[in-house]
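For reproducibility, we list the full input for the coenzyme A complex.
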Amino acid sequence: MLKGVKISGTGSFLPDRILTNHDLEKMIDTSDEWIKTRTGICERRIADENTATSDLAIEAAKKALKNAHKKPEEVDLIIVATVTPDMIFPSTACFVQRGIGAKHAAAFDISAACSGFIYGLAVGYQFIASGMYDTVLVIGAEVYSRIVDWTDRNTCVLFGDGAGAVVLEPTNKDEGILAIDLETDGNTAELLMVPGGGSRNPICQKTLDHRLNFVKMKGNEVFKFAVNSLVKTTRKVLAKAKLKPEDVDHIVPHQANVRIIDALTKKLKIDPEKAFINIEKYGNTSAASIGIALDELVHSKKLKKGQIIVTNAFGGGLTWGACVIKW
Ligand SMILES: CC(C)(COP(=O)(O)OP(=O)(O)OC[C@H]1O[C@@H](n2cnc3c(N)ncnc32)[C@H](O)[C@@H]1OP(=O)(O)O)[C@@H](O)C(=O)NCCC(=O)NCCS
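The corresponding predicted structure, in tokenized form, follows.
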């Protein structure tokens, strides 16, 4: 018999440095007006040069553990979702394990780009549902500013740095993760990628000259794909949980573009007021966005016990997915 799995604590961490749209106006040919109306973003956080992804992840993890009333030694597994790991290896999760002192925890990273948090939740869920582990930390963390081409106005205005974390634990009550849907279409890989730095195009002068170590994106095509895939996965996951869009109390979407979130709630006929949006403050923090949003929702006091949350994301791969949680 599978065990139930609940979120027992949340935490998030954002670097202090704020980069506003007006700051970007001085760096590239753009405007505050264009960025705000096309994306909903006003500012984003940027980590300082001495900060790596694990540094943000460690702070978010410590807060999530505190909220869950758990000690680091009680953690069985640490999963970090990121596409901006500290290094190729060891995994960022290993640095987090060391940083928080989770000496009994196994640790690994997963790579599903902006869908990373949903994929991480799904993996963490399995370990607890199967009975293998009792306490799993799932963290989404990125220093995306390191892979953004600050000369490319099509992409650099969109992203920011940050980390969000949750603690997963078993439950025998009617609560927690009710359903998960994960999907992938590798045929669309070229729409969003960092082509250089791996085994296909290792770092060399040619890779750097062609700026292959930075994010390349066909924004328009990703936009269309995002709306359709988010609608599809959300309908699917709600059906798995035997719920309807009108049963949803809060929708916590990946924060990529406010117009994508608006299109999603419109197509699903969900009251737009139910969508949690903080993109204006942080931009797209990739795998971190849902963890940060969940933590802010929890602390906003708007979330009540027993309410239904649906969270969904899409990202490079392309990957997408959704999760229904009864709080
Ligand atoms: C990237 C995105 C904001 C662009 O918005 P858009 O309305 O589709 O804009 P377009 O790409 O059609 O570009 C329109 C014009 O604005 C220009 N433009 C692009 N970025 C600009 C910027 N930062 N400032 C000013 N102008 C800009 C383009 O060059 C284009 O000019 P042109 O018509 O003269 O060629 C939007 O497509 C998007 O959000 N896509 C999804 C991306 C995403 O979420 N990626 C992450 C996935 S997790």
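The two ends are 22 Å apart (CA to CA). The pocket of coenzyme A is lined by residues 30, 34-35, 38-39, 114, 153-154, 157, 192, 217, 219-220, 222-223, 226, 256-257, 284, 314-315 (CB under 6 Å). Both points were considered when choosing residues for closer inspection.
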